[in-house]
Amino acid sequence: LAESPENFLSTVQIGITLIGILTGVFGGEAIGEAISSWLQGVFPALSASFELVGKPRPYSVVIGSTLAVALITFLTLIFGELVPKRLALRNSEDIAGVVAVPMTWLARIAAPGVWVLARSTRLVLRMLGMGKDESASVTEEEIRMLVAESHEAGVIDAHERDMMNRVMRLGDRTADSLMTPRNRIAWLDANAEPERNFAVMREHEFSRYPVYRGSDQDIAGVLEVKSLVTRMGGHGENLFQALRETLFVSESTHAMKLLEIFREEQQSMALVVDEYGEIRGLVTISDLMGAVVGRLQAVENTDEDALVVTRADGSLLIDGSLPVEELREVLGAELPDADEGDYHTLAGLCIYYFGRIPQAGEFFDWACWRIEIVDLDGARVDKLLLSRVGDEGSDDIVG
């Protein structure tokens, strides 16, 4: 039945239609006559006739037929439609198991009629200029609604809901929305003293580092700490002897394509470049994982390191580099034009609204949140304070 839903539904529709017709023809007449006889016995005056469609009709017959139709309709809706559907929704698997065998035999018996109906339907649609429906049977928006309803019903928890939503958004994200920006990359310098490079590795403790010679205009390769440990005994002169070739990807590369590139190239890190060949940032396989499971915060991180800090008054102190995907989950609201790539971080949202680099102390109201710039690091929006104000939907710059 599951493999041929069209035949199954046609069989059910034939059964429903036949039952409705037979009930109306035979049940309606019998019940109508019974009610008419009872009315004539209780109210003899209703035996009188009147002209209806050119024929004399007793009042009792007309009233009896009307009440019979109303009664049959009521009972059909309650016991034939609403109650069975409610029971099926509450115990779908159990009821499906019970009715599967009878429905299979009924489908086989009704197969000739179903075939005729299916062919006739397709012929009529073809005559109307409507060929085969090639549209998706399930849309992404329907899946999102199903996930939201499942969460409200308690079937899935909030973390599962968020992860499913992230998975569906992953295909729309590009490398520039996933990357670590250029000014935050931990570089090693092949021209620098070994101790300086070891200091960088002790500070960041990454498994891989991009290496340049003097500046990021001259990329030397990628240093893998694991391979470094296996081939050297702590001597700096062997630090950059076995660098891996650097992988470059475009800032517009979509996340799923990026995953495919990592798999084909057997690499887990790439430098992101723009159309002019300038380095924009660095993206890793961990960034892709984080886009699905959420940011993995280090245990030793303090409030100063955290991207989002909830204060005692309920306001949020947020780092400007917080990605819009995580900002959506924090605020529980959609962000204007974020899907069009106008910005990828909370700092980008502020610049998008002001149309310039804002100053510390400036703020604007948006979607029941007041977003205030707290601190800048040069031209970079570093820290912002978000607090709930006003009615949802306000998005005016006010300060």
UniProtKB/TrEMBL annotation:
GO terms for molecular function: flavin adenine dinucleotide binding. Residues 1-160 form the CNNM transmembrane domain. It is found in: Membrane. It comes from the Bacteria. Residues 242-304 form the CBS domain. CDD domains: CBS_pair_CorC_HlyC_assoc. Pfam families: CBS (PF00571), CNNM (PF01595), CorC_HlyC (PF03471). The chain crosses the membrane at residues 12-39, 59-83, 95-118. SMART domains: CorC_HlyC (SM01091). It is a multi-pass membrane protein. Keywords: CBS domain, Membrane, Repeat, Transmembrane, Transmembrane helix. This is Hemolysin. It comes from Xanthomonas cannabis pv. phaseoli. The lineage of its organism: Bacteria, Pseudomonadati, Pseudomonadota, Gammaproteobacteria, Lysobacterales.
